[in-house]
Amino acid sequence: MEEGSIRSQTIKEIHQKRLKRRLRTFAFFFSIIVVTLFFSLNYIGDLTQQQTLETNIQAETDWPVFLYEYIGSGSNNSWGGNPNFYLAHNGQDYYLIQVQQDNRTVEQVTPLSDRRTFAGVYENYDIE
Asked: Cβ(60)–Cβ(74) under 8 Å?
């Protein structure tokens, strides 16, 4: 009788080890899937935000083609928080674009005639 009980106990231990191994494998792959989904959704959100910003800049300025680059956030004591600033070029002139904290809504487009104007505006808004 003892052999049978030892044998059944050994079989139970083997089944428990297999179950633990399967659970670990499942947890590993599940965590990989969750991390992949998180980064994918985050990336899609960034793309959507960027496309919305480009659409809003185009609607505000009526430029058919333009390039822009983020230069920093500043403090102009606006109620909406600290705005973000972008330097834009439409093929002819340079412009400073002030965007609300949501990074989608264009508040103001300031033409920059030369570097001194840019330096003055840069200091005025305390852009970092």
From this structure: no
